[in-house]
Amino acid sequence: xxxxxxxxxxxxxxxxxxxxxxxxxxxxxxxxxxxxxxxxxxxxxxxxxxxxxxxxxxxxxxxxxxxxxxxxxxxxxxxxxxxxxxxxxxxxxxxxxxxxxxxxxxxxxxxxxxxxxxxxxxxxxxxxxxxxxxxxxxxxxxxxxxxxxxxxxxxxxxxxxxxxxxxxxxxxxxxxxxxxxxxxxxxxxxxxxxxxxxxxxxxxxxxxxxxxxxxxxxxxxxxxxxxxxxxxxxxxxxxxxxxxxxxxxxxxxxxxxxxxxxxxxxxxxxxxxxxxxxxxxxxxxxxxxxxxxxxxxxxxxxxxxxxxxxxxxxxxxxxxxxxxxxxxxxxxxxxxxxxxxxxxxxxxxxxxxxxxxxxxxxxxxxxxxxxxxxxxxxxxxxxxxxxxxxxxxxxxxxxxxxxxxxxxxxxxxxxxxxxxxxxxxxxx
Length: 428
What we know:
Elements: E1 2-9, H1 15-18, H2 25-34, E2 41-48, E3 52-59, H3 65-77, E4 90-93, H4 95-105, H5 117-131, H6 137-156, H7 166-177, E5 186-190, H8 194-205, E6 210-215, H9 218-227, E7 231-234, H10 238-242, E8 247-250, H11 261-269, E9 276-280, E10 297-301, H12 306-309, H13 313-321, H14 323-367, H15 374-401, H16 408-419, H17 421-427
Parallel strand pairs: 5-6, 5-8, 6-7, 8-9, 9-10
Antiparallel strand pairs: 1-3, 1-4, 2-3
Helix pairs in contact: 4-6, 4-14, 5-6, 6-14, 7-8, 14-15
């Protein structure tokens, strides 16, 4: 059994590379369906967010795990022909994989340390894999504990005391660029998903009253706008609305640019010299990067948020230190459980054989006692169960003690021969 994660994130790859390997919800579903084509993959979870794409797997004796996982990721994304550079991707195996996963769940590996959105995204990724039968005893243990620890870290430490997230950082960046108080600004949000809702929440906490929402599905724009006392704009008319906006924030999830250079130029021309701040927090990007060349337009994408994040970095990092003992203790617990999983099949075989023998001999004994009442039958049944349990107790304990150690294979062979478990397995 090999535990591994392969991925890329905001630290290893620029946004134009990350967007090539990002999956939307529909694409995740399609990708997971293709995992079954790869026999070496025993269990698998695919996590894809605006800042990262990570493929977690339990592999069966793969010679070059990183190379295999990179080929698998490219296949699942349908980009086998795209040239890649090794420096864009990280790969962690075994205990290092556990450390990475738990740091992600706790918000310690995020662009904004302590942001809470990643935990819900991780939970969704796990459920998606679980519902398709792609997780088993290993990942069910690991991911459920990771989600639990992520919640505990946010409760025990002060890592999430402030509303820090990518959307929060976007609002702070917009505030820094304005020449007026942000409370007086008019804001146009393109997109009506979770990221847009979070952005609107942070804007409202800053005192912003004029919020406009535009989305391809108009009723979703209406719902979000109503929630924040704003106004919904038909998606076909958002360019007209942009001429009155001080801030334009995009998070649509569209597979292509929704604002190209020519469109942005027309928006700028209609503003009569008033500048506009455009913040693109989508992956893939919503706004053509060439828009930055237009006078009067201040364009920032998700990579630019690092400057805003740095302001509170020290405080969050100090709180993050309190999370590591929690993570380390949990990883030790998990490793103990995982080591036990390797000997569990042997224990099941031995227990099953003992139980079949017990039932057979009990049946023979009761056949010789035709006058036995129900009370006597229960006593005989319980007594035989306890005899079997006590006889197996010491061998089971010893076998559990050698789990994951060099002598485990010797014990496997010894138990097979002593209890004739080879025939037992064949009879199943």
